[in-house]
Design a protein that fits this description.
The structure holds two protein chains of two kinds.
Chain A lengths: L1 E3 H7 L7 H11 L3 E7 L7 E10 L6 E7 L3 E7 L9 E12 L2 E7 L26 E6 L13 H12 L21 E3 L7 E8 L8 H9 L7 H12 L4 E5 L7 E5 L5 E3 L5 E3 L5 E5 L2 E5 L3 E2 L12 E7 L2 H10 L5 H6 L8 H15 L4 E10 L7 E3 L2 H8 L5 H10 L3 E3 L2 E3 L2 H4 L6 H12 L20 H15 L3 E2 L5 E2 L1 H6 L20 E2 L4 H11 L5 E12 L7 E12 L5 H14 L4 E4 L7 E11 L2 E9 L7 E8 H8 L14 E9 L5 H11 L4 E11 L5 E9 L8 H17 L3 E2 L1
Parallel strand pairs in A: 9-12, 23-26
Antiparallel strand pairs in A: 1-8, 2-8, 3-4, 3-6, 4-5, 6-7, 10-18, 10-19, 11-18, 12-15, 13-14, 15-16, 16-17, 20-22, 21-22, 24-25, 26-27, 27-31, 28-29, 29-30, 30-31, 32-34, 32-35, 33-34
Helix pairs in contact in A: 1-3, 5-8, 18-19
Chain B lengths: L1 H17 L3 H12 L4 H8 L5 H39 L19 H15 L3 E2 L5 E2 L1 H4 L25 E2 L5 H10 L3 E10 L11 E11 L4 H16 L5 E5 L5 E10 L16 E10 L1 H6 L8 E8 H9 L12 H4 L3
Parallel strand pairs in B: 1-4
Antiparallel strand pairs in B: 2-3, 4-5, 5-9, 6-7, 7-8, 8-9
Helix pairs in contact in B: 1-4, 2-4, 5-10
The chains are: A alpha+beta, B alpha+beta.
């Protein structure tokens, strides 16, 4: 929202600080200012001037103009405006001498756009009477910081803040005595007073429609509004000042009574912006007997709008339910200056003030205009103003400093609250949504005395050790271990595309869908971190021949009801551009065994299409599958891309548990080796499992030693068993018996010793 | 015989002195001092001598043996140290060559900042909580005093999901979850990933990291909030910081503030970083709104509190002078290996 310093200075008596300081004070006490920009900067030094002659300059679209200026005597300027002609009264701006089109051009003749009046850039301004405007300063306030303040969407509201901050008198631009008097002339029917708590309308006749005066155009332009014409510009003035949104209808185009009602399903309206909108039964509209003539609080209809031939107008100043306006405006994707204000919950008490102010301004811009009768005013029962009990001691405890009661009352009264004893009555424009409880008054006092006046005080806190977040500690241990083994941590997005889901063969239905994605390639929530890993492989292999990375993040899974399940996972990847790929998988096994020494890798013959058909294994821990290790199929990633994917909830649960010390054995152990010949591609784990199953408690350890593959594909796998007895030295017979048990099991499994 | 012993010893000493290496010397040792060596031969002859001659000869023999052994040891040590020295001199190693094998990986800068800040808070008695990334409308909005159709919902462009859920737009929903779980009085933080439906550009992301903080106790004041923030930020920035509060609107706090810190680049004098204002906007905070306390099952008549939200992503960018937010989730190791 843009505020004009000139406008504010008309509403705050004796405003003696400059725009920059106004901006600073508002930031500290009210809302965030984004800075100050000049408007109409060219007016500094500008003066009226008459063109004496305009000669074409050869080979240029510019003319050489001799001008008689009001302040600087005769000047020669180069001018490109098609309307630059002898005898024209225009505005001269001194800018110093510059070579233009081969002549020494001393200053310039300015267009309306350059002078900040409107968007007209077709030629230089043509004056019918001399004007002089002052350069204005525009203070831009962040809209977000005004979300809760319907009153600050206009200059009068901001002027009230400024007057309160500076302790200066506030000038009310509205004189209610100017409100037209007499019987209402406009028939208004409001069907739902909850959605339209007030609807005021005033009829005017003898209207002349034309351009707005320059001062009005200049003011609107300064705050970013375009001049449309004298009548519409007045409605915009009211919006920017009071800040009551209003609308002017051509009274002769309105048929019958004005009805404020819900739209019928499919009812259509051609709006002022030239767009046609299809309405639903949730939309509130203004209608006449022919149909909709406006979308309540959002935009007027084209059919009943002001035109050059308009003679009579109806000025509408209404109040609409904030939520309803917001709903309609978001559904139609149509945010207007009016809807932005209404959705902040405007003050219903403002409508007649707008009509009074409108009547005054109409007379200035359309001489001869007359009001007919008085305003129609349909409204819901007046709500009593909220009264808040304020405990002054409590207030000081909340602030953490003492503010004298008299100062508190002074501040509240400057902000138009009324205070009687401990009872604080909220003014109507703060009562719609903003202020309702004593805590709201803490803010009023705090911001007005200035938070800088509150000295920091240490809070009295009990000394207790906080509970430890074990999951985070666990994740950090995993991270530390991964980085020690050369893995770099990455963060990937939670969103994926349908193509990404398809690439890993995951059905679209398995994903939670984002209803309003930023882009179609971010429309699903990831159910696996592998999508990110794939991307990381793809992106980084362009820069590195070998690399390692890991991510700890959440998979998001659909559930039939309630919130989805968020499962933390760790995905680690090793990439090698060349080689047989074994080392990458080994590194990941090492990483995993570091996390859980008891984990097992079980080969699977049901590899996913994206996996190397012979290089995938399930990771098991304590009889549960907790993840998967595999190499990506070369059609998915070129080169060798090994991946480990682990469910961290399961890992955390299964690897928890206290370590219990085993006494060191006092009697010597014995070892024996077994070399076993197997069919091709029998994994060592299978053989080891057979040995383990055969072993008794005498076997302390079975270790894989080495393997080699015979020319015919058969494998030789060597293991070393360590056997011992805790109570005594084992006898050779006992050792042999243990060995024989293992050999028997091997034979039973159809393998033999080598 | 004594003369012969002395002559032998003298000759042997000369040969030891002349020995060029350990082997030559060892040959002399075996020849003279060995079990069948020449000195041993003299020993056998001792029996033929008279008792008095035997005493003198014995002395001479022992003297020769002792002096020869001493000479051997000295020379041997010399040879050994020369050999060792020779080995050492041959073992030059270029220690400037980087070692083979792995270099440790790096933690993501967001992880690093998060760990640092978590331990700072933990040291001040704050519990670290987690909350879901997919949230209910209730926790993300209603419980935080942002009812449906409140324009404040527009302040946070929301990703809506099937089933009426949404991606949390801030870490604030953990306030309510935390109050429910811990009960008053409490101190908690909740760092985590949040989402906003925003177009991505160098300074905007739809996915970023925040840290929510909350303290609930009896009689918590704005003065307490100020003290706490100042202490916290001095801890984060590892220097004394000057802060200021100004009004800010967030429905879940009342009063609500924007907290600015004095610009660390110019010290408050005004520079391009702080847009000449001397202050940099850092975080939103405020006293917890009574409605939020109620939603968390806490009686606002008895307890009050303050809450704040810290932008971790922003902090990372400030600390490492990162000029494009998109690097953080690029997965690009050229970027990540720098941390």
């Amino acid at each position: 929202m843009k505020f004009s310093y000139q406008w504010l200075s008309e509403l705050v008596e004796d405003l003696d600080i400059d725009a920059k300081e106004v901006s600073r004070r508002i930031t500290l006490h009210t809302a965030e200012s984004e800075g100050v920009e000049p408007h109409g900067a060219l007016w500094a030094g500008a003066c009226p001037a008459t063109v004496l002659s305009a000669e074409p300059i050869p080979n240029s679209h510019n003319v050489k103009a001799e001008v008689e200026t009001a302040a600087y005597g005769r000047k020669t300027v180069a001018c490109g405006a098609p309307n630059c002609r002898s005898g024209l009264r225009t505005v001269y701006v001194p800018l110093g001498v510059k070579k233009v089109s081969g002549i020494d051009s001393d200053g310039m003749l300015a267009s309306m756009a350059e002078l900040g009046i409107n968007a007209d850039h077709d030629g230089i301004i043509e004056l019918t009477e001399d004007i002089a405007l002052e350069t204005d300063s525009i203070i831009e306030i962040d809209n977000k910081s005004l979300t809760h303040r319907p009153d600050l969407w206009g200059h009068y509201g901001m002027a009230r803040e400024l007057a309160a901050i500076l302790n200066k008198p506030l000038v009310d631009p509205v004189s209610l005595e100017l409100l037209p008097q007499g019987p209402p002339q406009v028939e208004v029917i409001v069907e739902d007073l909850a959605l339209c708590p007030r609807f005021s309308a005033q009829l005017f006749e003898n209207v002349t429609v034309g351009d707005a005066p320059v001062w009005l155009q200049y003011r609107l332009r300064a705050i970013g509004l375009n001049s449309i014409g004298n009548i519409v510009d007045v409605t915009n003035w009211l919006l920017a000042e009071l800040p009551q949104p209003t609308h002017a209808y051509d009274a002769d185009k309105v048929q019958g009574a004005i009805v404020v009602r819900k739209a019928k399903a499919g009812e259509k309206i051609l709006a002022l912006n030239g767009e046609e909108y299809s309405l639903t039964i949730d939309d509130l509209i203004i209608a006449d007997s022919s149909g909709p003539i406006g979308i309540a609080g959002v935009i007027g209809g084209k059919g009943s709008s002001i035109g050059p031939e308009t003679k009579r107008i109806i000025l509408e100043a209404a109040n609409f339910n904030a939520a309803a306006v917001r709903k309609t405006s978001s559904r139609l994707k149509l945010r207007t200056d009016a809807s932005m204000r209404f959705e902040k919950a405007q003050d219903p008490e403002n409508t007649l003030r707008a009509i009074a102010r409108g009547a005054e301004l109409f007379e200035l811009v359309s001489p001869g205009i007359r009001s007919l009768g008085g305003p129609t005013d349909v409204r819901a029962a007046v709500k009593p103003l909220p009264v808040i009990d304020l405990d002054f001691d409590w207030l000081n405890r909340k602030l953490g400093r003492v503010v004298e009661k008299s100062e508190v009352i002074g501040i509240l009264e400057r902000l138009s609250f009324t205070v009687q004893g401990n009872k604080v009555t909220v003014p109507s424009w703060r009562a719609t949504k903003d202020v309702s409880i004593a805590d709201d008054l803490v803010e009023e006092i705090g911001r007005m005395v200035g938070y800088a006046t509150i000295a920091p005080i240490a809070p009295a806190m009990p000394v207790v050790p906080p509970p430890v977040n074990e999951e985070r500690l666990f994740f950090n241990r995993l991270r530390a271990s991964a980085t020690q083994q050369g893995f770099d941590e990455v963060y990937n997005y939670s969103f994926i595309s349908e193509a990404q889901a398809a690439k890993l063969g995951i059905s679209l239905e398995a994903h939670i869908r984002v209803l309003n994605p930023i882009a179609s390639d971010q429309s699903l929530m990831r159910t696996t971190l592998l999508h990110g890993a794939l991307k990381n492989f793809e992106d980084n292999r362009r820069h590195f021949g070998t690399f390692r990375f890991f991510e700890i993040g959440k998979e998001i899974h659909k559930k039939s009801k309630g919130l989805p399940e968020e499962v933390p996972h760790l995905v680690a990847g090793v990439y090698n551009g060349h080689g047989d790929g074994a080392e990458g998988l080994r590194e990941l096994e090492r990483l995993m065994r570091g996390y859980a020494p008891a984990c097992e890798f079980r080969p699977t013959d049901t590899a996913h299409p994206f996996e190397h058909p012979l290089r995938s294994a399930e990771v098991w821990l304590a009889a549960e599958q907790i993840g998967r290790l595999f190499e990506f199929h070369p059609n998915w990633v070129e080169g060798r891309a090994a991946v480990l994917d682990i469910d961290l909830d399961k890992l955390a649960r299964l690897s928890a548990g206290a370590i219990r010390y085993q006494p060191i054995r006092r009697f010597p152990a014995s070892e024996f080796d077994l070399s076993i010949l197997t069919e091709p591609r029998v994994p060592a784990g299978t053989v080891e499992a057979i040995l383990r199953a055969a072993a008794t408690t005498a076997t302390e350890k079975i270790e894989f030693i080495r393997d080699f593959t015979l020319p015919d594909g058969h494998r030789s796998l060597s293991f070393r068993a360590t056997v011992a007895n805790r109570e005594r030295t084992m006898t050779q017979e006992e050792i042999n018996a243990e060995r024989e048990r293992m050999i028997a099991a091997i034979s039973a499994a159809g393998m033999k010793l080598r | 015989m004594i003369a012969e012993i002395e002559a032998l010893a003298s000759a042997a000493l000369s040969r030891i002195a002349a020995a060029a290496n350990l082997d030559e010397m060892e040959a002399v040792r075996v020849e003279v001092l060995g079990r069948k060596g020449t000195l041993a031969e003299f020993g056998k002859l001792m029996g033929k001598l008279s008792a008095s001659e035997r005493v003198d000869a014995g002395k001479a023999l022992n003297g020769a043996k002792t002096s020869l052994e001493a000479a051997f040891d000295i020379k041997k040590t010399a040879f050994e140290s020369a050999a060792l020295n020779e080995r050492l001199q041959s073992e030059w190693l270029d220690l400037t060559i980087p070692p083979p094998g792995l270099t440790p990986g790096s933690l993501h800068p967001l992880t690093q900042i998060q760990n640092e800040i978590e331990s700072l808070f933990f040291s001040m008695g704050f519990t670290i909580l987690d909350g879901p990334e997919v949230e209910t409308e209730f926790h993300n909005f209603d419980a935080l005093n942002i009812p449906a159709d409140h324009p404040a919902r527009d302040m946070q462009d929301t990703f809506w999901l099937e089933g009426g859920h949404l991606l949390r737009t801030h870490t604030s929903p953990v306030q309510v979850r935390g109050m429910m779980r811990l009960g008053p009085p409490l101190r908690m933080i909740a760092p985590g990933r949040v989402f906003r439906n925003e177009e991505v550009d160098p300074s905007h992301e739809h996915t970023f990291y925040q840290l929510e903080g909350m303290m609930v106790d009896r009689d918590v004041s704005i003065a307490n909030l100020l003290y706490f923030m100042k202490t916290l930020l001095s801890g984060i920035f590892k220097r004394d910081t000057t802060v200021r509060l100004r009004p800010g609107f967030f429905p879940f706090v009342e009063p609500g503030f924007e907290l600015d810190i004095e610009c660390m680049v110019c010290g408050g004098a005004g520079c391009p970083v702080c847009k000449q204002s001397g202050w940099v906007e850092l975080l939103p905070c405020g006293l917890v709104h009574p409605n939020v306390l109620r939603a968390g099952g806490i009686d606002p008549a008895e307890f009050g509190g303050f809450a704040f939200g810290l932008g971790l992503t922003r902090l990372v960018m400030m600390r490492y002078l990162i000029d494009d937010i998109r690097w953080l989730q690029s997965g690009d190791l050229r970027f990540l290996k720098q941390f």
